[in-house]
Design brief:
heterodimer, A: alpha/beta, 4-stranded antiparallel β-sheet, B: alpha/beta, ABC transporter involved in vitamin B12 uptake, BtuC, 6-stranded mixed β-sheet, 22 helices, 14 strands, 57% helix, disordered C terminus
């Protein structure tokens, strides 16, 4: 559905992405994991035409979109949920959703109903200003707003950002449900464990280059990936916590 | 370098202009341009630096104009003394109208200054001492220390020397902690407050300064026109100011000079064509063209040309350097914080309800709870961003709940923000230098302390970049460095680990420990339970605005109410 071939892009004169190639097939959840500054958000922004691609080809459903403007890309069937959500804070939930339909007219009521069915909590809060929603609800609204454009491919940038542990699990379940409803998702996540938990396949990006691409389960089991992104060997949250505690005793000399 | 090149070009052009032209007319244009530039340089300080629009700047020109005319004609004052008296009066007037209204947000200053101007016009028309509608005639030529300036050439040089002095004042502000504070205010008032910057004070300062400079503009013009009446500085003159600085550019005081030259230059050229009908149309069209073609104004365009001409290689990629533990010295004794019965509602929503807790000096205390539990609201209440409905907040046994955010920052309470509040109009290093605002010290000292804070968080390589060039997680570190530069004794961190992967989260944990080891009490809001349970001495759980539990990490995680509201099954199973 989406193919990137040897894409180089970035800001100003210094490229952030170097010859990136990846593929998302219809009906898949593909995760992109990597450190801060590796180029994950830049990759999504390049696909959406928000960052200019310098070289390489970006094809969506066989059509080259590398040179297209963002509104045309949205009309072609791609939608992005940006990092930190970027909702219209003072507008109501429903107004936010209507803004999501801006690029594609018609059947608004039907599309609204579909999103309210998918996220019932948003129906309850339809008249509330977006900024008064809790973090998890805001994330759901951001996803629902992107869905209003009826994208065939949804790009999610850090959906778990700033969410309480219970809500991270919940949002991941919602994303998995999007796939069950026939959607295709490319998700960028710092919380690699959560993302790999729902993804079919995943890519690892380091310093602007794709270094691995494999089935999600394979990466979860890979010791190199574990060490770099999943908190290392014995990466249960208890092990990480114990390591932090040990450092606390060493640095502060308490317990 | 850029600054020196600009100053050299300015002095050269000012000196050369009279030599390049013939006759008295071009020289008179030069004088009028200079008088306008004196005012527009001040206006850049107000509109460009302090982001405050004033629609009645010509009112202050009237103050200067009438002071010079009346004092010199009726009271035979020395012109220089009259000019200074006029500027002082204008500044006093500016302070009187702005001090009360700058508490309000929005366009109040624009309207108040316009109202002041209209009042001054009425006063000038209706009173006797101004000469009424006929005005005051026979204003003498300008004089310096009793020596009259007989020739226009001499006056031309005096006017432009004053412009140069104003530019130097502007550049000095630009390069100082005041200039940095103004840029900070323009980028994010919230973050500026957290760095201890008194927003109102600096806006007021710029308004008063710009009024003084506008008054000088009025005086200089009147000594050239040799007469003053109520119509000399009308509303159109205020618009001249606005057009000039927008066309010229709002980023540096040079924009004021360039704008004054462009506005008068173009107008005189059009006048030469003698097409009275088209003059206004062409002026308007040119303004729009400049605005579209040069978004940063003409001065910004010239600056960009210079930069392209002398530019170096692209900035290097940022990688996290090994943090330097020795970079910061101990901050002294950590501070304690006490909340008693704190409540705050927004409409029907009780965001915080009767919350009481103690943050022990030297502890790492974590505040956890579901999204929307009131954690960030509590931070805002502690830091003075919102008033309490009831209850009290004490820091070091002192009530701080009636203080303003910048005063609270000055006491040594640093904070970071959940949704990052960095100043994107400055480099990373300057961002951190803003944290030094509460210390009155030399720039070099500020810079080296800010560098030390950056080295401490491991961001030494990034100092010249704009924060937006960094990844989200690295921007977090810049915010922490800025808060550390303030030498806090209590540091509030709002979700520092969000947007970090697991390896980075462990590095963050190490950083928080090193901060605590400096002698800083840490209060953090965080969702990453590994971080919270690993780091904290004490955990406070909030739910629906109320305190649900409070205790040691291992006790809190076993409480059924906490598991139900927040932690969920997995954490419970793991425990």
């Amino acid at each position: 559905m989406l193919q990137l071939e040897r894409v180089t892009s970035g800001y100003g004169r210094s490229p952030v992405l170097h010859e990136v190639s990846l593929e998302v097939r219809a009906g898949e959840i593909v995760a992109l994991i990597g450190a801060n500054g590796a180029g994950k958000s830049t990759l999504l922004n390049t696909v959406m035409g928000l960052v200019r691609r310098a070289r390489g080809s970006i094809r969506f459903e066989g059509r080259e979109i590398g040179a297209a403007a963002t509104p045309a890309i949205v009309r072609a069937g791609l939608a992005q949920v940006p990092e930190r959500r970027q909702l219209f804070g003072t507008m109501s939930v429903e107004e936010n959703l209507r803004m999501g339909a801006y690029a594609r007219h018609g059947r608004i009521a039907e599309r609204l109903a579909a999103q309210y069915a998918l996220f019932p909590i948003l129906a309850e809060r339809r008249r509330q200003a977006a900024e008064t929603l809790s973090g998890g609800e805001q994330q759901m609204l951001a996803i629902a707003r992107a869905n209003m454009a009826e994208p065939r491919l949804l790009l999610l940038d850090e959906p778990s950002l700033g969410l309480a542990p219970l809500l991270v699990a919940r949002i991941m379940r919602e994303i998995a449900r999007l796939r069950a409803a026939g959607g295709t998702v490319l998700v960028v996540e710092q919380n690699a464990r959560a993302a790999l938990g729902i993804a079919d396949r995943a890519y690892v990006i380091e310093n602007g280059r794709i270094t691995r691409g494999a089935a999600a389960g394979e990466l979860l089991a890979d010791t190199v990936v574990q060490a770099a992104y999943l908190g290392g060997e014995g990466a249960s949250s208890r092990a990480v916590e114990a390591r932090i505690r040990a450092r606390r005793t060493a640095v502060l000399g308490r317990r | 370098m850029k600054r020196r090149a600009a100053l050299a070009a300015f002095v050269l052009l000012v000196l050369a202009y009279p030599l390049m032209v013939r006759g008295s007319y071009p020289l008179s244009v030069g004088i009028i341009t200079g008088a306008l530039a004196a005012g527009t340089v001040g206006f850049v300080l107000l509109l460009g630096y302090a982001h405050q629009l004033a629609l009645g700047q010509a009112g202050f020109c009237m103050v200067g104009g009438y002071a010079s005319a009346i004092l010199c004609v009726q009271h035979k004052w020395d012109p220089l003394a009259a000019l200074i008296a006029g500027a002082a009066a204008a500044m006093a007037l500016a302070w009187m109208i702005a001090a009360p209204i700058l508490k309000l947000r929005g366009f109040v200053l624009a309207m108040a200054s316009l109202a002041l101007h209209l009042i001054l016009v009425v006063v000038a028309f209706e009173t006797a001492f101004t000469g009424g509608a006929l005005g005051t005639y026979g204003v003498p030529k300008f004089a310096l220390f009793g020596l009259p300036l007989a020739s226009d050439l001499a006056y031309y040089y005096v006017v432009w020397a004053i412009v140069l002095a104003f530019v130097l004042i502007g550049l000095a502000i630009d390069g100082s902690r005041i200039g940095r504070a103004l840029k900070a205010i323009a980028a994010s008032e919230t973050a500026a407050l957290s760095a201890g910057i008194d927003i109102r004070r600096y806006k007021l300062l710029m308004f008063v300064l710009s009024a003084g400079m506008a008054s000088v503009c009025g005086s200089l013009a009147v000594h050239y026109l040799r007469a003053m009446d109520p119509n000399v500085f009308g509303f159109a003159f205020s618009l001249n100011f606005i057009t000039a600085v927008i066309v010229g550019g709002l980023e540096t005081v040079w924009g004021g000079v360039v704008g004054a030259v462009l506005v008068t230059g173009v107008r005189e050229m059009l006048r030469g064509l003698s097409l009275p009908l088209w003059e206004g149309v062409i002026m308007g069209a040119l303004t729009v063209v400049v605005l579209i073609a040069f978004r940063r104004g003409f001065a910004g365009f010239l600056g960009a040309l210079y930069e392209r001409w002398t530019s170096r290689d692209a900035p290097p990629r940022v990688s996290i350097a090994e943090p330097d533990n020795a970079a910061l010295a101990s901050h002294g004794k950590p501070a304690a914080l006490e909340l008693a019965g704190v409540s705050r509602s927004f409409g029907n929503l009780r965001a915080v309800n009767n919350a009481s807790f103690h943050v022990a000096a030297g502890s790492i205390t974590a505040l956890i709870g579901p999204n929307g539990a009131g954690k960030t609201t509590l931070f805002n209440l502690i830091c003075g961003y919102q008033p309490l409905d009831s209850g009290s907040v004490s820091y070091e046994n002192r009530r701080i709940d009636t203080l303003l955010p910048d005063d609270i920052a000055e006491l040594g309470i640093g904070r970071t923000f959940q949704n990052l509040q960095l100043f994107d109009n400055m480099s990373v290093l300057e961002n951190v230098m803003c944290g030094r605002h509460r210390f009155v010290e030399r720039e070099a000292a500020s810079r080296s302390r800010a560098r030390a804070a950056l080295a401490f968080v491991g961001l030494r390589d990034a100092e010249r970049l704009p924060p937006s060039a960094l990844a989200f997680g690295h921007q977090r570190l810049v915010e922490m460095a800025r808060a550390l530069a303030l030498e806090p004794r209590l540091l509030l961190l709002d979700e520092p680990a969000s947007g970090l992967n697991d390896a980075e989260t462990e590095r963050l944990a190490e950083l928080v420990l090193r901060i605590a080891a400096l002698g800083v009490t840490v209060l953090l809001v965080e969702h990453d339970m590994r971080l919270v349970m690993g780091l904290a001495d004490h955990v406070i759980v909030m739910h629906h605005g109320e305190k649900l539990a409070d205790g040691a990490p291992d006790d809190v995680r076993r409480e059924q109410a906490v598991i139900d509201a927040y932690l969920g099954i997995e954490e419970h199973a793991a425990a």
